[in-house]
Amino acid sequence: MLANNITVFDQNTMEYDNWFEKHAIIYQSEILALQQAVPKIGNGIEIGVGTGRFAQALNIKFGVEPSENMASVAEQRGIKVIRAAAENLPVKNNTYNFVLMATTVCFLSDIPKAFSEIHRILKPKGKIILAIIDKNSELGKKYEKEKFKNMFYKDASFHSTEEITSLLEQSNFNSFSYWQTLTKINTNEIEQPTKGFGKGSFVVIKAIKN
Ligand SMILES: C[S@@+](CC[C@H](N)C(=O)[O-])C[C@H]1O[C@@H](n2cnc3c(N)ncnc32)[C@H](O)[C@@H]1O
Hints:
Layout lengths: L3 H8 L1 H10 L1 H14 L6 E4 L5 H5 L4 E3 L3 H9 L3 E3 L13 E7 L8 H11 E12 L4 H9 L14 H10 L2 E9 L12 E2 L6 E8 L1
Parallel strand pairs: 1-2, 1-4, 2-3, 4-5
Antiparallel strand pairs: 5-8, 6-7, 6-8
S-adenosylmethionine binds next to helix 1 and helix 4.
């Protein structure tokens, strides 16, 4: 049986996917931030690939996704999807040059286990790239306050950039870089990302496997 925070995506896949059409400015700003961190070459995989909106835009060919309906849409976008959860990856050790996880950490049942699995499947010096809605940001506070009204986020647990950094350090990642965007949440303009965190609601964290 699927956990609640997977079932909601499985049962409302097209509603989730259509969000990106309705919020094209936010989506484009997020892609620009992710492009700063995601390598243009090398073998990469997105864990919690969803419907493949980011993987497709970033030219990532592989994904992991526990929801069958989300995975099917990602496959229609040309991504090869393994049906699994981040905490238990059916992938051999030292396989990938980089792993992306975009807006999925907040849904995991066991973050240290997922980070340890990602560490295991990365090649030596491989890169982990995470995108989060920072719990301390304007959007993070709004989502946290209103999450009981939002079917997708009602079971989510948001984290700060510092909390995620600390968990990554405990999982043997180092050499951190950060980019941020969505410094204003009500805007009609695509935003250029800046380095660092603390101002933007969408934060991209990159670290290297020790
Ligand atoms: C907010 S969506 C993000 C999807 C995609 N990365 C994107 O940004 O559009 C969260 C995704 O995480 C998946 N998910 C939930 N729990 C997971 C887990 N334990 N391991 C991997 N994926 C999980 C959900 O099924 C859903 O597709």
